[in-house]
Amino acid sequence: MRVALVRELGGPEVLVPAEMPDPVAGPGKVVIDVSHVDTIFVETQIRSGAFSDYFPVRPPYVPGGGIAGTVRTIGEGVDAGWAGRRVIASVGFTGGYAEQAATTADHLVPVPDGLGLREAAALAHDGVTAAALMQAIAPGPGERVLILGASGGMGTLLVQLTHAAGAHVVAVARGDRKTALVKELGADDVVDGAEAGWVEQARAALEAAGGPADAVLDGVGGAMGAAAFTLTADGGRFSAHGAATGGFAPIDPQEAARRGITLRGIADVQLTDAEYVRLAGHALGEAAAGRLRPVIGHVYPLEQAAEAHTAIEERSLLGKVLLSARGQG
Question: What predicted TM-score, i.e. pTM, was given to this entire model?
Answer without folding.
Answer: 0.93
